[in-house]
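Blinded run. Sample ID left blank on purpose so nobody reads anything into the name before looking at the predicted structure. Input follows.
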Amino acid sequence: MKKTRKGNILLLSSDETLQRVLYLYFSRKYYNVFCPQNAKELEQVKKNNAISFAILDDDSKIDSNISLCNSLLEFDNEIVIYFICQNTETKHKVETANPLFFTILKPFAMRNLLSKMTSTANKLKDEENKITTFNIGNYKFNLRTSTLTFKGEEPNIEQHLTKKECQILQILAQNTRKMVSKHRLLMNIWKKDTYQTSRSMDVYMTRLRHYLSSDTNISIENTHSLGYCLNVKE
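Blinded prediction complete.
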């Protein structure tokens, strides 16, 4: 039985040893590893694949790599980004550029990088799961009670949500005004990205739009084949 891939890793490095180790290690854990060789290949990876991890180790391109990673996080802030730095000066530059960037200084043991990557991803996930209530415009979304309450009228209007409706709205609410990749939503909720699951998600999005329709400042926007964005006007 063919197992579903868990995610994708973007590797920007000319270090063949690093490439080989990551390919071998993560292929057993069912991740795809992409190592684009030019700007065109990089754009194809960004466009067609939801990135789980990004690893960069070229200090000579530090400014462009920082800019690239900032753009990746604008699209999906669950990406775990590690810069492998040659010296403490570059390490400091990366860490001050964005607090969401992680660094590791050469020389290092490969097992340290691998364990840091997975532990960081798990920690970020745990921190997100601690938040159980969200304010979305004039709505309050309570994850524990699976309810969406509109606060604009007396008495308040309360809508009970299904498990998948809660899961989708939680991810969108955690990333308000940011695009969430379609692939990430499907893999997080249905554990597979197929035509059938994609169509199912479209149905759930239609329901959520209806539930949120009492507040005209809220919209769930769809960028075809890329993802969804929960927009709330201020």
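Unblinding after everyone has recorded impressions. Residues 133-232 form a domain with the Arc Repressor Mutant, subunit A fold (CATH 1.10.10.10).
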